[in-house]
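HUMAN: Ready with one sample?

ASSISTANT:
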Amino acid sequence: ETMTAAAMANKSFEILTPSHQVVVATAAAPGWFLTSFLPTLISVLVIVGVNVLSEHSSLAAAIATAPTGTPLSIWLMVQQHPTKKDKILVEFCWAVVKGVLATLAFAIASFIAAREKAGMWTTLGVGYTAWFGAFML
């Protein structure tokens, strides 16, 4: 069978066309600055802020519990999963809710232990036990 040049070009194009989808471009993953340096810097600033405000316990506690790492973590999770942003956002935010409720359990248990004059290490042990138990629910 004789084929024209155009028909041959079409045939060779069909042969060279991959049968699977190829992703040509993806979103760049966040760099070292956003994944390592910035969270560390924020943590250090929180510790310094708590230390500076240690004479004002309620203000120091407010800084210590402020959502500084959570927004950055949400942003990083969404950036690292560009094809599943909505699903990742829902799953991660639910895990944040669990973590916050577990932290509330830590705070309440620690408060009760401190009020009973349990001492720092016992208070922390009681708090972490409550946190772990609440998070596992």
